[in-house]
Amino acid sequence: MFGFGKSDNSLTMDKPQPVSRLDTTVQGLVGLGVERVDGPAKVSGQAIYAAEYRVDDVAYGVLVGAGIGKGKVVSVDVDAVKGLPGVIDVVTDYDTFIRVSQQGGETEAPTQGVKDIEYFGEIVAIVLGDTYEAARDAAIRLPIEYDTGAGVFAFSMDAERDGDLPENNTPAQSAQGDIDAAMDAAPVTVDVTYTTPSQNSAAMEPHASLAMWDGDGALTLYGAYQMPTSDAQQLAKSLGVAASKVRIVSRFIGGGFGSKLGIAPESVAAAVAAKRLGRPVKAVMMRQQVFDVTVRRSNTSQRMRLGAGTDGRLVAIGHETTASNLDTEDYFEPAGISTHFLYAGENRKVSHDLVRVNWLLSGSMRAPGEAVGLIALECAMDELAEKLGIDPIELRLLNEPAEDPEKKVPFSSRSLKAALTQGAERFGWSKRQPAGARREGDWLIGMGVASAARANTLMKSSAKVALHPDGTATVSSAMTDIGTGSYTILTQIAADMLGLPLDRIRMELGDTNHVPAAGSGGSWGAASAGSAVYLAAQTIRQKLAKAMDVDEEELTLKDGQAIARNRSVPIGSLTEGEPIEATGTIDKGKQEELFNQASYGAHFAEVGVNVVTGEIRVRRMLGVFGAGRILNQQTARSQCLGGMTFGIGAALHEELIHDERTGKIVNRDLAEYHIPVNADVPDLDVVFLPERDIHANPIHAKGIGEVGICGAAGAVANAVYNATGIRVRDFPITLDKLMPHLPQE
Amino acid sequence: MQFTINGQRREADVDVRTTLLDLLREHLALTGSKKGCDHGQCGACTVLVNGRRINSCLTLAVMHQDDEITTIEGLGSPERLHSLQAAFVAHDGYQCGYCTPGQICSAVGMLGEVAAGWGSHVSADLSSPGLNTDEIAERMSGNLCRCAAYPNIRAAIAEVGADHASAAATSARREGVSA
C-alpha cells in the first residue's frame, strides 16, 4: 500500500551534519560497552576463519618462496617432486603470480611477474597435495635453479634518494617559510635524527585463501582480507577476469593491522592453482612467509629540527624522513603526516624520500605515518622542553595552533589540550622528577608524555538494512570486522535507530555479494560503515513514520514498538508483510577539505629501568583520547589497549632484521620477532573525552583504531629518558643501548 | 589411531607427520584450535591433553593413542559457555578472536597448575603460589595476543580464578586436606 520496496539514502559530506538522530533515539545502546555480539562464537571456537571452511575435494597448497634476494628463476624442477606420494602437481605462472602484495584500497593488480626475483622469499610456485603434509614435504624439496643478480640489501642514507613520489595521504615534499633561516635565528634549537626499524603487523592469523571456481568461470575466495570490495577488484585484475566474476568472503579475520588491506601472493597462487586443477585449493602461509612476503612497515630515518624562542614558542619545524621500498613501488611511509598540523610554527618543512632496496614490499601497518613519525616529533619535543627548561606538557600547550598551520583551515574538533591537562592530573604528572633523579632500589623510575594525533578519514561505504515483518532486521555489507568490533557497533546503531533489541538484529558482513564497503583500515571502518547503516535505517524510520501517518521526528521506536501520538504498535506490523529494505551510502565530501579532521589524545607512561641489567619495564600507562562519539565504550577501549601495546612494542621490542647479504629477514617468526607478551603489558588506563564531530559524518564519530598507537612509543621513550637521563634515538630501545650509559655501581 | 576428544571416542588414519593440531583442524573438523605459527611460539593451538595444556602444533598425532584431549569446543558452546569463556566475553578478553581458544584452554590448564601448587618465575613462595595479576601475566605469556587484550584477559582469568580457588579450598576442606 505504501510502496515501500527498496530505496537508497546517500550522503556526501559536503556540509556539516549538526543533527544526529543517535542523540534522540531512546534506547541508548550506542555508546554503552555492550558485549560483542560475535563473542560467544569466538570464545567457543565456532567463528569460522578463512582456512576453516569445509569444502569437498580440497587440495592443499603450500607456497614456495625464492631462495635468493635478487635475480631470475631459471627453472623449477617439477618432476623431482611430482612423483612423491600424495603430491598432485606444482603450479607456477610466471606472468600472473603477483610479485608483491597490493596496497590497501587500490583497484588495480599489484606488480605481477615472478620470473624476476626482487626480494628474498618472493613466491614463485605453489605445490599441491592431497594432504598438507605431502604438499609441505614437496615444497621443501622442490629444486629451483636461479640466476643470481646483484641487489641492494642494506639501507644506507648515503644511497641515492628518490623524493619525486606521488602523494600518499600526504604530499611527499612540502615547505612553508624558510626553515633554514628560522633555525639559524632561533635561540633554542634541536636538530636530531631518529631511526626506526622495519616492523611486521604479525596478526595472529596467517594469510590464507581458499579458492574455488564454478562452471561459469566465477571465483569464490574465502580469504583473510580487510577490504573485500577493493580486494576482489585487485584479484580480478590480477587474474584477467571480470570483477563481477570474483567473490571474496571474509567473515572473520584474525587480525590485520594493515597487512591484509590488499591481496597477498597466496590469493592469486591459490586461484591459479584451483583453475589449473579444477578443484578447490587452500593456501595458508607459513608464519615465516607472513614475514617474508606480505608487507612490512618501512624502516625510517627521520631528521627532526625544532627551533623555538626562549618563551617556548616554535618558529621552525622540520621533519625530513627517508623510508625504503622496492624500486617498482612508490609507497612511502608517510611519517610526517601529523607534523603538518600538530603544532604551531611559521617555518615548516616536511619531506619524504625513498631509498630503493631489495627487501619485501613496504606498506601500511597500523597508523602508517604517525606510528613512527610521532616517535621522532614527540621525542624531539621532549628534547626541546629539556633544553628550554619548560615542562613537556606546558611546551605542547604553548604551541597549540588556532587552526591548521599549513592549510589555514579550522579543526573540526580537537581535544589535545584537554587530553594533556586532564591526563596529567589523572596520571600524577606533577610528581615527575628531573631525569635520572628517581630511584627505587635497583630501579630507575621515569615518566614520559606524548601527544597523539591520527588523521580522520571517511571512505565510501554502503550498508543495506532490511526490516522484516517478524520485527527483526538484517544488516548486510561488505564491511569487515577484524577484531575492531564492527559486528557489535553496527548492531548497536541499527538497534537504536530501529528501536529493536540487540538480539533482533542479524549482521551479515565480510562478503562481496553484499553491498560494497571500504572495509577495515585507516580507522575509517566504524564511522564509514556506521554512517551507512545509520542512513539506511533513517530511511526505514521515515517509512515507518509514514505508515504511522506522523512525521519522522514524532516517531519513537523502542523495544520493538513504534510509538507516536498515543499509539503503540509492534514495529513489524508496519511492514505490510513484506520486508522494508533500504541501502545507505556515505561518501567523503568538501568537509574533508574545509576542516582539518583528526582524532587526538595524550599518552602518559611510567617505566622502570634496572640499573644493573638495563631491563626496561613499563609500569603503567594512561591514554586520554578525543575521537568524537564513542560507539561502544568497551570495544573502543580494547582498540586503544591494542594501540598502546603496539606502542610498547615499537618502543622496546619490535625490529625486523634484514640480512645485508641477501635481504632475507633473519628473525622471521614469533620467537625472534618480539611482540609484547602478557607480562610486558601492565594494566593500561584509557579515558575517552566527551566529543562530537559534526564535520566528520552524521554519527559524529572519528577513528579510534589507530590513535592509540600514535605517540604511545614516544611516551615510553620519553619515560626511559626521564628514568635514566639517556636519550636513545635508534629504536627499539633495548637494554644493550642503555647499558654502557647506566650509572656504574 | 583412537583418541578421546571432548569426551567422544574418535578414530583417524593419520600420516606420521600429522601434528595433533592438523589432526584436529583438517581431519576432525575441530577448527576452534588455531594455527598461528606451527612452531610452538604463539600458543594459539593450545589444547588440554590428559588435563595438561600443550601446544598441539608441537606434538604428533601418533603420539596420542588413547589420550584424552579437550579442545575449545569441548569446554562449552555458544549456548552453554564455560565460566572462562563467559568471562572472556564479559571482560572483552579478545578482539579478533584468533588467539582466544588457545588463551582459554591455556587458562584452564594454568588454573589447574596453580591449584596443584606449581610455582612460577614470579612466585614469592614457590610452595604455595597465589593467583595475583603478576602470576597470571607470567603464566599466560606463552599465549600471544597481537590485538593485545592482555589486561582484559587477566581480568577474565582473575574473576574465574577467584571462584576456582575458593572451590578448590572448599573441596580440599571436604576431603580433609589442609590448604
UniProtKB/TrEMBL annotation, chain B:
| SUPFAM superfamilies with a match to the protein in the record | 2Fe-2S ferredoxin-like, CO dehydrogenase ISP C-domain like
What InterPro entries does the annotation carry? 2Fe-2S-bd, 2Fe-2S-bd_dom_sf, 2Fe-2S_ferredoxin-like_sf, 2Fe-2S_ferredoxin-type, 2Fe2S_fd_BS, Aldehyde_Oxdr_Iron-Sulfur, Beta-grasp_dom_sf
- The answer to whether the entry has keyword Metal-binding is yes
Output the superkingdom of the source species.
Bacteria
Residue ranges of the 2Fe-2S ferredoxin-type domain?
1-75
Any one GO molecular function term: 2 iron, 2 sulfur cluster binding
Q: Tell me the protein's name.
A: Xanthine dehydrogenase YagT iron-sulfur-binding subunit
Annotated organism of origin: Sphingomonas jinjuensis
